[in-house]
Every structure is written in C-alpha cells, then in structure tokens.
Amino acid sequence: MTSSFSGQNRPGMPPRLPTPPTGWPIGSYGTYEEAQRAVDFLADSDFPVQEVTIVGVDLMLVERVTGKLTWGRVLGTGAASGAWFGAFVGVLLSLFNTTPGAGFGPILVGVITGVGFGLIFAAVGYSSTRGKRDFQSASQLVAGRYDVLCQPRSAERGRDLLAKLAMRPADAQKE
C-alpha cells in the first residue's frame, strides 16, 4: 500500500514530501510579481512550464502592525464573530425545525447566544495577554529574491526566452 507519506513519487508529479528544488537558474527577480510574469511569458512562448520552479530565497516573516488593540475593539470583534457563528447555527437549527410558525426564533436565539459567547471568549483571551500584545497585525512570508529554476534539458531555451523578455521595453512588459 502506498501512502502520501511513503516518499515514493510518480514520474512527472510534484514530490509529496518537502524536498529541495532542483534545476538550473534561468532568471532571478526582486519580486514575486516579476518572477510570475517571467513564467507567464515562458508559458505564452509554448515553453514546457511544468519544468519550471519559482524559489523564494532569503525568506523573511514580515509582521505589519495594523492597529492598536483596545477593550472596545476586542469586545466588538468578539461580539461580531460570535454573532456570525450564532447566526450560522441558528440557520441550521431553523432548517431542521419542524415546528410550524417558528420563523426566525432559532436564528435570533443563535445570534444572541453567539454574541454572549463571543464577548466572553474575547475578554478572556485578551485579558490573558496582560497587556503584552496590545496591537493587531498581519503576518506574511516574503523572500529577498525569487529565482526561476528549470530542468537542465530546457534551461538554455528558457534562459534565451527570458533574455528576450528582459530586452523588451518596460511598458511592453506590463501587457
């Protein structure tokens, strides 16, 4: 029996377990958008793009602070998320309710209960940090550069095509 963790790969399929990328570098770009544009150009040029890999090098975790956390914001967010979950549960209960005339009762009860639980969980979670993280943020994994690798049998052609892309005027590259 073969499991997804057996390490055996089928020819032509991506590896099932994390493995280092293989191939020869045919281009290097400062942003992911530029690397993506290069691979798109290769695809438009009838290049076998299944032999291409984009590799992010010099990875960084970037955390962008989006705002200050206050009790009002924490409780408001907790109430809103609880209301959504409560509405979802209420809709499910109303779909399976066979009592005539029940209408929006289960939905209203679900929203009110959800708001209550959302407030409680948000308050407990925020108070447990004891002021050590009074801000909101969004994390993103970015790379210092993006290399485009290609299998050796097609690398020379890929490099030649990307050289043509680099020689195009800047306004023609954005199309």
UniProtKB/TrEMBL annotation:
Domain General stress protein 17M-like: 26-99
Pro residues composition-biased segments: 12-23
Species whose genome carries this gene: Saccharothrix coeruleofusca
Protein name, UniProt field: General stress protein 17M-like domain-containing protein
Residue span of region Disordered: 1-23
Domain of life: Bacteria
Spans through the membrane: 74-96, 102-126
Keywords of the record: Membrane, Transmembrane, Transmembrane helix
A Pfam short name: YflT
InterPro entries membership: GSP17M-like_dom
